[in-house]
Amino acid sequence: MRIGLIAGPWIPIPPVTYGGIERVVDSLARGFTAAGHEVLLAAPAESTCPVPLVPGMRPALRDALGSTMSELSHVIRAYEGLGGVDIIHDHTLAGPLYARRAKDIPVVTTIHGPLNALAVDLYRAMARDTAIIAISRDQSSHAPDVPVTQVIHHGMDVSAVPVGSGSGGYLCFVGRACPDKGLLEAIMIARQAGLPLRIALKMHEPDEIRYFRQEIEPLLGPTKSSWGKWTTQPSTG
Length: 237
Fold this sequence. Notes:
Blueprint: E1 2-6, H1 20-34, E2 38-42, H2 68-81, E3 87-90, E4 107-110, H3 117-126, E5 131-134, H4 137-141, E6 150-151, E7 171-176, H5 183-193, E8 197-202, H6 206-220, H7 224-227
Parallel strand pairs: 1-2, 1-3, 3-4, 4-5, 5-6, 7-8
């Protein structure tokens, strides 16, 4: 089968630093290829995922993260380059709503975020001609009127994750600074286990910074040096 994958325009595949959706797309591309399928990837031009890339894609637009203009331009180029595939798995928000995409190629999309009121409007509209995948039953339960075709949990290649020695090292949390990602729970688990926790967070949006400063940093308190270590670097998304 010829499978087209569309990632967002802002972060290469695979991501160099943070990029949860981008890591999922990378895993899918590699997994489909290993299963014997032909994969064509629409992603930023500097992507290094070992599958063919749609020609004519632009470099990653990191400074335009979340911009409607950058996503729409990317989507147009992606669908123009995926005309010969059998199916498209689109990981953007704009793509499934793009009116000029080929009607004879089935499109599936994954809900990568919470189903809040704004998102529900989008996915209801997409469902008219796009198959919707949820990443958990809890996620889909927040909008039962959005027709979900299948629940498929995000997977990971466990062979790529180094195994600790078990000799009293540390725990690590990698993710975005928001309540949904379980950072608070990770801190509680680390304390109960009596192990240090190193936290690597994506803090780019004002809400993410606010959540960390108000909800997480006070928990680290005077034990900050033991329970949490972090450095501030420019965000790349």
